[in-house]
Model the fold of this input.
Amino acid sequence: MTTYFDDKETMSKDMRREYYNQRLVEMVKLGYDRSSRVKNMFDETGIRPVDIQSTDDLEKLPVISREKLVEIQAEDPPFGGFADNKASIGRIFTSPGPVYEPHLGSDDPLWARAYSAAGFKRGDVVLNAFTYHMVAAGLTFHGGLNRVGATVVPSGSSGTQQQVQLIKDLNVTGYTGTPSFLMAIIKKAEEMGHDFNKDFRVKRASFGAEPLPPSLRRVFEDEYGIDTYQMYGATEVGDIAYECSEKNAWHICEEVFVEIVDPDTGKRVGPGSLGEIVVTRFNPVFFLFRFGTGDLSSIVDETCPCGRTSQMLKGIAGRVGDAVKVRGMFVAPSQLARVGSQFSGTRFQLTITRTGHRDTLSVRVETAEQASGLETLKSRFDKIFQEICTVKIDALEIVGPGTIGDDAPLMVDERSWK
Done:
C-alpha cells in the first residue's frame, strides 16, 4: 500500500492547477513588495504583479541561469536583491560561484517527499553521506529524513572504513548519498572481510547528485538486496523531483513548478519534447522565478500506478551544451546511449546537414548483421530512434564493420548558419 507524505500528492488536476496558481500569485505579490530585484525586473519590462495570474504567465518573465545568478549576486551581494532581507532566514548555504542561498527553518519540507516515496520511515537508521560543510546537501537531506521519522547518522564525507564501522555498530538500515560512494563502502566492507548481505542491514538507498546507471542499480538490487531510488534537485531551488516505487519517471514536488523550455527562447516545448528544466520554487523569502537548471528532460504526463497525480520528469537526458537541436527538437548523448543499448554489436553515427531551411538527419549504422536481417534492423532502428529521440531519421545507411572509427564522434553537425 502506497504511503504519501501528505494529501497534496494526490490532488486532482484542477486542484493542482488552482494550488500552483495561488502559490505563484502570492509569491509574485510578496516578491514585488519585498525584493528589489523582482520589483526592478517587473518595472523595467512593464509587467505588473496583476499580470501574473497563473503559471501560464511565467513565460512573460526571463529564465535566469546559474551563471546569470552568480553575476547578479556579485553586483548586489549577498542575494542579488532576490531575498527579503527582513525575513526570518534559518540558514545560508553556498555553492561554487559563489552563490548564496537563504533557506527557511525546520518547517521547510525539503526532500521529505522523496524519502517518503522511497519508503524511509520511523525506525530506520540512515547513513547520510552527503557533505555537511557550507553546502546545502547534508543538512537539507538530514532534515528531510527527520521529517519522515528516520534517525540520521551524519557521516558526511568520512572515509569508507569509518562508514563501514558506523553501518556495523549502529545497525544502519538505509543509505543516502551518491551511488558510487555506496559501492565504494560495500567494496571496503568486503576488503575488511565482511559479507555485506549477511553482516549488515542496509536494505534501502536514496541517491542524488550523480546519475544511477541501470547496470549499477541492478548490482545494488540483485546482488545486495538494496531497494534503490533516485531524487533530483538543484542547490539554488532545492528538491525538484523523485522516484516512487514504480521507478519509471520522477514525480515533480508540490513545492515547485517545473517548465520544460527551449533554452534559446525560454518558451515551453510540447509534452514529451526535450528541453531545459526551468524551476520556480514557491518561496516566501527568496524570490527566484524561472531558474534555468541547464539540465535536459521531458515531461511525462501520464497517470502513475502509485496514485500520485503530479506530472513527472523522464530522468535527465544531459546538459544543454551537450545536445544538438534538430528540427526544433533536442537530441542528447544520453538519448543516443539508450538507443545504442537496444542494439548489441552495432555502432552508429549521426550527421546533421541543412537543405534549404530544413534540417536533415542521416544515420550510419555499423553492423556485422547478415544481409537477410538488414531490413529488419533498419526498420527497428528507425522506430526505436524516433521513440527515444522524438525526431525522424531522413536517411539510414547500414555499413560494414570498421567503417566508423573508434574515435569517431557520435554526432557530426555540418550545418552552416552564415
User: Anything to note?
Assistant: Residues 44 and 376 are 58 Å apart (CA to CA). The chain has a mean pLDDT of 92. The two ends are 59 Å apart (CA to CA). Residues 324-413 form a domain with the GMP Synthetase; Chain A, domain 3 fold (CATH 3.30.300.30).
